[in-house]
Design goal:
The complex is a heterodimer of chains A (156) and B (76).
Chain A (H helix, E strand, L loop, with lengths): L5 E4 L5 H6 L8 E8 L3 E2 L2 E10 L1 H18 L4 E7 L1 E4 L3 E9 L2 H18 L2 E7 L2 E4 L21
Parallel strand pairs in A: 1-5
Antiparallel strand pairs in A: 2-7, 3-4, 4-6, 4-8, 5-7, 8-9
Helix pairs in contact in A: 2-3
Chain B lengths: L1 E4 L1 H7 L3 E3 L5 E2 H11 L9 E4 L2 E3 L4 E2 L4 E5 L6
Parallel strand pairs in B: 1-7
Antiparallel strand pairs in B: 1-2, 3-6, 4-5, 4-7
Classes of the chains: A alpha+beta (156), B alpha+beta (76).
């Protein structure tokens, strides 16, 4: 079996396993988004990251996002796995797989999902730099929207 | 009542969970209790969840509920 559609894990994410969860005979497309740990942010060098989650609520929020997607794109299917714990540069932090009959829907629903994850899912990252550490949050002006649609022009 | 803390809130006070005896009250009153007992953390810009659902300062909290304080998030 492939496991639950929405997971928080402290293990390396198996991208293919997430993709398998949305395989459907009615699908003509599957988009797989892979979020990875970036080394340079605004000229500052990250050594590694640490992610923490409020796991039971994070799973509920993944389910809410899936429900929002179902309302907007009824034929799309989604699976999400987010990693927590210590992550090195280029490690995979999140994988989102969306299948749908046609590709446009799979692209749109996948982007919607990552936008919403950044707004409502209780997960935090701590940056470890050469000269210190910081839990990342409001300096990204990452205003949470517990309900409703994300602003369309938001840039990450 | 259980209070859950994450990210810098958890690191600053050195614990992830506080269990206290409080009567039915509001999220705002729980915030005030935390502010007066842990003056080295700020709950400004921090959202709250009651039993894993987002809440406002006016949300009623029962003695057996779990209140989580959610600093600005940075997943993905």
């Amino acid at each position: 079996m492939n496991g639950p559609l929405f997971e928080i894990t402290d293990k390396v994410i198996d991208v293919e396993q997430v993709r398998q969860k949305v395989v459907s005979r009615n699908a003509g497309a599957i988009t797989v988004f892979i979020g990875t740990v970036r080394e340079m942010t605004n000229g500052k060098k990250t050594l590694h990251l640490e992610y923490q989650a409020y796991t039971p609520m994070a799973i509920k929020m993944f389910e809410q996002i899936a429900q929002e997607i179902k309302e907007r794109w009824p034929d799309a299917h989604i699976a999400i796995t987010h990693r927590v714990g210590h992550l090195a540069i280029s490690d995979i932090a999140v994988v989102i797989a969306v299948s749908s009959p046609h590709r446009k829907m799979a692209y749109e629903a996948n982007e919607y999902a990552i936008d919403r994850i950044k707004q409502i899912v209780p997960i935090w990252k701590k940056e470890h730099w050469e000269d210190g550490t910081e839990w990342i949050g409001d300096q990204l002006e990452n205003v949470p929207y517990p309900t409703g649609a994300p602003p369309l022009n938001e840039e990450e | 009542m259980h209070i859950l803390l994450f990210a810098h809130l958890q690191e600053t006070i050195g614990q992830s969970k506080i269990t206290i005896d409080l009567p039915q009250c509001t999220v705002g009153e729980v915030k005030e209790w935390v502010a007066s007992n842990y003056p080295n953390i700020s709950l400004q810009q921090v959202m709250a969840a009651v039993n894993e659902e987002f809440a406002t300062d006016a949300t009623i909290v029962q003695p057996e509920d779990t209140v989580a304080f959610i600093p600005p998030i940075s997943g993905g």
